[in-house]
Amino acid sequence: MTNNEDILITEVALRDGSHAISHQYTVDQVLKVAKALNDANVPYIEVSHGDGLAGSSLQYGLSRTNEMELIEAAVSVADKSKIAILLLPGIGTLHDLKEAANLGAKMARIATHVTEADVAQQHIAYAKELGMETVGFLMMAHMAPVEKLVEQAKLMESYGADTVYVVDSAGYLLPEQVRERIRALKQSVGTKVGFHGHNNLSLAMANTLVAIEEGATRIDGSVRCLGAGAGNTQTEVLVAVLERMGIQTGVDLYKMMDLAEDIVAPILQSPQEITKDSLTLGYAGVYSSFALHAKRAAEKFNIDSRDILIELGKRKVVGGQEDMILDVATEIAQAKRSLVLK
Ligand SMILES: C[C@H](O)CC(=O)C(=O)O
Ligand SMILES: [Mn+2]
Q1: In this chain's numbering, which residues are marked as the site (Transition state stabilizer) (predicted)?
Q2: Most CB within 10 Å of its CB: which of 67, 169, 247, 311?
């Protein structure tokens, strides 16, 4: 890999995609996907539970395989790509970070709700101490005005983040909203700027292109759209589009297509489409990883999952409040029952 690329892609299917397959990755799947990504020259491969290190729990979903084994597997086949991990302070600890670094992870992406950057200080500083490249990952970026986002990005920068990301966790942002956010960050922070999209409103690619136009140089994608909700910006498609635009990513398009078709498609429980649930996430501004939890709750209570998601959006529920999904489902079911009894 050279340093001549205009855009450096982080492939997130082995982390964000974990949500879409209920955290059931096996070592064999990770070995195959990571090796193919490495062979295709993808610069960064993120590997963790969908909710970051130590996310495996009843609240977020139990992993089939210990994520440290998955990280170790990915590192073992990646001689060009760097392995990244995601960590949400409060879920993952400094101990988890150290364990991942000892296994060979080279980049730490520290994720917080868009208004809570201050909880990332210790983790970013420690990742730097461990010699890792650091990213401040500001989730649910639609929930804060631009000035607030800038303030939080500056905090991440002051803690030592090398890059700050605008994260459209709900796939809610419209292209002009992405434009104003990336533009404001480019004007106000000295770090590199990145963008992570979700395709719930079919805008992930358009939003990514706007982010690049405004100067974002770090971009996330998921091969075959294997990410939460309707997935992320589809990596192999992004590589093709950027190549046509004359923008260098260094990624081998044919190898990415083969990986998507031959290795990733068979892993999917069902094809990544914009379903009524994922569309509702984007429409209502709800965290993409809530989709499967809401679907299960809807089945349990025999109610419409869209009603749960819309209500969660109204209540401005954020990542980490997964317990609210059951609460809201219970309330909707009770209200439905009392209507029947009247
Ligand atoms: C923990 C989340 O799944 C992180 C993410 O990918 C997002 O907010 O989007
Ligand atoms: Mn995501």
Answers
A1: 15
A2: 169
Residue 3: pLDDT over 60? no
Query: Do strands 82-87 and 44-46 pair parallel, antiparallel, or not at all (unpaired)?
Result: parallel
**Domain check: are 29 and 171 in the same one?**
yes
The residue segments making up the domain with residue 301 are 286-341
CA of 51 to the centre of ligand 2 (A): 9
pLDDT in tens, 273-304: 999 999 999 999 999 999 999 999 999 999 99
Does residue 279 form part of some domain?
no
From first CA to last CA, the distance across the chain in angstroms is 68
**Closest ligand 1 atom to the C-alpha of 198?**
9
Known binder of ligand: residue 196?
yes
Q: How far is CA 125 from the centre of its chain?
A: 22
Any binding-site annotation on 198?
A: yes
Q: Supply the residue whose CA is at minimum distance from atom 9 of ligand 1.
A: 169
Alpha-carbon Rg for the chain in angstroms:
19
d(CA 28, CA 74): 10
